[in-house]
Amino acid sequence: MYRVRNFLSFMLAFALLFGTATLTSAQSATPTPAAEEEMAEMNIVETAIAAGSFTTLVAAVQAAGLVDTLSGEGPFTVFAPTDDAFAALPAGTIDTLLADPSGALTDILLYHVVVGKALSTDLSDGMTIETVGGGTLTVSISDAGVMINDAMVVTADIKTSNGVIHVIDAVLVPAAEEEMAEGAMAEATPTPAAEEEMAEDAMAEATPTPAAEEEMAEEEMAEGGMAEMNIVETAIDAGAFSTLVAAVDAAGLVETLSGEGPFTVFAPTDDAFAALPDGTIDSLLADPSGALTDVLLYHVVSGKALSTDLSDGMTIETVGGGMLTVSISDGKVMINDAMVVTADVMASNGVIHVIDAVLVPAAEEAAPEATATPAAEEEMHEPEMLPVTGGSATDSTNGLPWAVGLFAAVVAGAVLFFRRRMA
Questions:
Q1: Phi/psi at 91 (nearest 5 deg)?
Q2: What are phi and psi of 111, to 5 degrees?
Q3: Cα distance between residue 131 and residue 81, in whole Å
Q4: CATH class of 226-422
Q5: What is the pTM of this model?
Q6: pLDDT tens digits for 86-114?
Q7: Do domains 31-186 and 226-422 have the same CATH topology?
Q8: CATH says 31-186 is which class?
Q9: Could you tell me the residue ranges of all domains in the chain?
């Protein structure tokens, strides 16, 4: 319940300021003289988070375990690619990098970092700069602007407490490895058309027909076999959960969701995360062990529940202590307000149901009043089923103290948020 209150206080505060969030983010990337002094009090990582246009970079830095390094004394010069720069990479590139956080991802990130504080006035045409990762960057200065390799500096000299950030419009790739990387990416990353076809084939294999599912279940019971990849590996392999995978990594939940389980995960697609209000992902990533973890655990249920185990009106308790409501109508399955678009994607430690929206604990959502039928009660007591509870007439009275406490938490969260913004 504490997790739910904490998250709701955050969401209310965010909603109250959402009207000015976009303008604030834009101004943060190119600070005014007055704001520049305030931003200089923040380190490189804090400045990147506050800017609001480096969501992917921040997630990558967190996944690679470089937050402490880039928050250290320094000084450092960071050439920071924007979210648009990362989005311009070939499809699947980010997933591939995130799959190797201590290898390929770290190598790419350190290719953007230089020891020392170098302002734009310190750069000269033809200069070469050695990166922390041991690579070399080339500076080109012309009437068109300042280029770092093939990336243009779009905003220079964002000062921080431990260095300076220069914003660039492309992700830097070590020149010596570019050809090899392109070849590997061409092989590992299919074209959009091929990727769509592969995804359809993968989902067709992962979502068997009832007859095939029964046969597979019998084989598994006889052999004790299961899908070879765990939940995290399956999400990475699917290619449609880049943001979810990055968030799980940033929150330190990879090991948990790769564990024995079993778990049932309602997995939002990249499009589902993209539909969130601007700045929401940045705000969540800024609090990986708090708000981000709360949201992610609201999508995870202990136990393995296939679509055939779900029933209309069923309520399910999540790992984070929240409640989900299942609605089934005209063949469509809804989890709260999110639709299940692909069900029963099997993993070695549970099952994934793909949904089209990010689940958010609802402040005023009352537990549904329902009386379980004898058949439903028997199903709810199956040993491998989810911890499911049906609504009852006592839910409304038990919910009163909860609602009062929740309202107090929401108000407190909003006050804290405003104080922080005004600071």
A1: -55, 135
A2: -75, -10
A3: 15
A4: mainly beta
A5: 0.43
A6: 999 888 888 888 888 888 899 999 999 99
A7: yes
A8: mainly beta
A9: 31-186, 226-422
